[in-house]
Amino acid sequence: MTNPYAERQVSHSGVNMAAKNEDIGFKKDTVSKLLSSFFKEEKTRLSGDAALLVAEMLRIFVREAAVRSQKQAASEDCDQVDIEHFEKILPQLLMDF
């Protein structure tokens, strides 16, 4: 069984090594179902445009987290990003969003 995340590794330049021009994002249906699961009333609806907007925000958030984690790892002279690098950048990332 292959690792589904192996193709999504980010190089030190912050560029997706598998496909430099291909953006990987969240599916609109997945985002809609996730958000809908938190609605308190059944009458609450989510428009398609709102789901696309949230999906784009998630894509940007994840990409920014990956880039900042990579920069943190590089500043510590590490050639691999670990969870500790992500944990170090997370507070500022959350404040920026």
Number of domains: 1
The best one-word shape is: elongated
Radius of gyration: 16 Å
- Helical content (DSSP H or I, runs of 4+): 40-55%
In CATH, the topology is named: Histone, subunit A
Report the CATH C-level class.
Answer: Mainly Alpha
* Biggest sheet descriptor: none
Q: What is the strand content?
A: under 5%
Defining traits:
disordered N terminus; elongated; 97 residues; mainly alpha; Histone, subunit A
Quick gist of this model?
Helix content is about 55%, strand content about 0%. With about 100 residues, it is mainly alpha-helical.
What does this structure look like?
By secondary structure, this protein is an all-alpha fold. The protein has a single domain (28-96), classed as Orthogonal Bundle (Histone, subunit A). It contains 3 helices and no strands. The protein has helices spanning 28-36, 48-75, 83-96. Helix 1 (28-36) packs across helix 2. The relative contact order is 0.12.
SSE topology:
Elements: H1 28-36, H2 48-75, H3 83-96
Helix pairs in contact: 1-2, 2-3
Protein name: Centromere protein X
GO molecular function: DNA binding; protein heterodimerization activity
Subcellular location: Nucleus
